[in-house]
Amino acid sequence: MSPWIIIVVLGACAIAYAFIMPRRDKEQQPSHQLVQEMESTLEHYMTEIEEDNDALIQRVAELKGEATAADQRMQLQLHELQQRLDQLEQQKVTTAEAISSPPVESITGKASEGLQAQKLLDSVRAEKNQHFVSVAESQVKAGFLEPQRESIKDRYKELFRLHDEGKSMDSISRQTGIQLGEVQLILQLAEREES
C-alpha cells in the first residue's frame, strides 16, 4: 500500500473516532446520573441511620436514668427496712428485759397467783386427758371402737388419686403443692404399709 492511502485511512479512522466519542459521553451520562442517584440514596440512608442511632442513644440514656432512679428507690426502701428491723430488734430486747426483770413488789403477789393458776390448769388438763383415755379404753374393750390408725393413703388421698391416674411425680408435686422428695417418700411408705 502506498503511503497516501495509509494516511487517508488513518484520517478516516480519526474522523470516525471523533464522531463516536461524543456518543460514548452521552452513554456515560446516564450511568453517571445513576451513580449520583445511588449516592443521594446512600446519603439519605446514612442520615436515617444516624437519626435512628441518635434516638437509640437517647432511649438508652432514658433507660439508664430510669434504672438509676429505681436503684435509688430500692436503696431508700432497703435503708428504711433496715431501720425498721433495727427498731423491732431493739423493741424485742427491751421487751425481753422487761419480762425478765419485773418490779420486785409485784413478783411475790403475782408469782403465787400465777403458780396457783398454773397448777389448777395442769390438774384440769390431766383429769380431762385421763377421762378421755379411760373412756376410749373402755370402748375399745367393749368392742365399740377399734383402735384407729389412719393409713397414709387416707391422709394423702389427692396424691394417691393422681398417682393412680398415672401422673408423674413432678406433676403430682406441682398439683398438690407437696415437694418432690416428700411425694417420693409418701409413695415408698405406702408401699411398705401395704406389704
Can you walk me through this structure?
It is a single chain. By secondary structure, this protein is mostly helical. Helices cover 88% and strands 0% of the residues. The chain contains six helices and no strands. It has helices at residues 3-100, 104-142, 152-155, 157-164, 169-176, 180-194. Helix 4 (157-164) packs antiparallel against helix 5 (169-176). The protein is elongated.
Give the % helix: over 70%
Total helical elements: 6
Principal-axes geometry comes out as elongated
Structural class: mainly alpha
Radius of gyration: 49 Å
Average of the residue pLDDT scores: 78
Q: Which parts are unreliable, with pLDDT below 50 for 5 consecutive residues or more?
A: none
What is the number of strand segments?
A: 0
For the sheet with most strands, the description reads:
none
Element order: H for helix, E for strand: HHHHHH
Query: Beta-sheet strand percentage?
Result: under 5%
Distance between the termini: 125 Å
How do the helices and strands line up, and which of them pair or pack?
Layout: H1 3-100, H2 104-142, H3 152-155, H4 157-164, H5 169-176, H6 180-194
